[in-house]
Design a protein that fits this description.
A 9-stranded mixed beta sheet has the order 1-2-3-5-4-6-7-8-9, with helices on both faces. Helices cover 31% and strands 24% of the residues. It has a single domain (6-296), classed as Alpha/Beta hydrolase fold, catalytic domain (Rossmann fold). It has helices at residues 6-13, 81-84, 95-101, 126-136, 142-159, 175-186, 202-205, 227-232, 253-260, 282-296, and strands spanning 25-31, 35-45, 48-57, 64-70, 105-109, 163-173, 190-196, 238-244, 269-274. It is α/β, with parallel strands linked by helices and 297 residues long.
Length: 297
């Protein structure tokens, strides 16, 4: 087996999209009490406009740490950014609004194929399949596109006068939890990240009860290594692996933590197991927010 490093990993991911001008516009601005919620639109690629929410606390002083808040999957392609800002869906997923109330600038875009980026009439998973398949036949991957979109989102965040460009965090549950591992391994501007119920590796995902999400179908990746090797690449940033004891997408969390821990020389690799299934309870979120406070304040 060839050992995994950044160079051979990114060769596997295939061609990344070209960055262009974001050309952002503000579509609406809403007073939410302790923060202002702006709905914005910007270009991830020349022909790909993304809609997102950015939440700006009213009581901030000077430039403020910002957190990229990635939504879950849940097989619900009608929901994306709106759930993490508390406008729809599960209140336990509204971590962007809770972190804004805590004083952070928070940023919540739609991932490709979700909410306003799902182009199907019935808001089905056909868009996600199309976005994967049409890339694979060209030697590209959907993960490269997803990581590109994260990087463009951070570009936008850093362009905002309210944001401390040196203090960028990341948080996500499930799909968002997977991106909370890949994001800081790929983009070193992310200084602290929380992965909740999204750390299962490829080996354990080969079980039919688990499976592999389309965004993470990378041909040949298991010939190089696995998710625990990606975790090792996150240092010098810090990562909290937040898992539960009855969740198939948290499977193997402790083994991965033990494997990757020695690689963290500057950053912190945190680990916490909670009782329950595929959840992100208030207690879990409070613990996650404290981890972000520690590394971004």
């Amino acid at each position: 087996m060839v050992s995994m490093n950044r160079e051979n990993l990114f060769n596997l991911l295939g061609r990344f999209p070209e960055k262009g001008s974001c050309n952002p516009i503000i579509l609406e601005s809403v007073d939410c009490g302790s923060y202002i919620r702006e709905k914005i639109e910007y270009s991830a690629e020349e022909d790909d406009r993304v809609r997102a929410y950015i939440l700006i606390p009213k009581n901030r002083i000077g430039k403020t740490p910002a957190i990229f808040c990635h939504h879950q999957h849940a097989g619900n392609f009608e929901l994306g950014k709106s759930e993490v800002v508390g406008l729809a869906g599960d209140p336990d997923q509204a971590y962007a609004s809770e972190l804004a109330e805590r004083g952070y600038v928070t940023f919540a875009p739609d991932a490709i194929a979700f909410e306003e980026r799902n182009w199907t009439e019935d808001k089905s998973g056909r868009a996600e399949y199309f976005e994967l398949a049409t890339r694979l036949v060209k030697g590209e991957t959907l993960l490269a596109k997803a990581l590109h979109d994260v990087a463009v989102g951070i570009d936008y965040l850093q362009s905002r006068n309210e944001v401390d460009a040196e203090k960028i965090g990341f948080i996500g549950h499930s799909y968002g939890g997977r991106m909370a591992i890949w994001g800081p391994a790929f983009d070193k501007r992310i200084k602290a990240s929380v992965s909740n119920c999204g750390c299962v590796n490829f080996k354990d995902s080969l079980d039919k009860s688990v499976g592999i999400q389309m965004e993470f179908c990378v041909p040949g990746i298991m010939q190089l290594g696995d998710i625990e090797d990606i975790i090792k690449m996150i240092d010098p940033a810090s990562l909290l692996i937040s898992a539960t004891d009855d969740d198939k997408w948290s499977r193997g969390a402790e083994k991965m933590f033990n494997y990757a821990s020695p690689a963290f020389k500057e950053g912190e690799l945190g680990f916490k197991v909670w009782p329950g299934k595929h959840i992100f309870t208030k207690e879990m979120r409070d613990y996650a927010y404290s981890f972000l406070d520690k590394h971004l304040s």
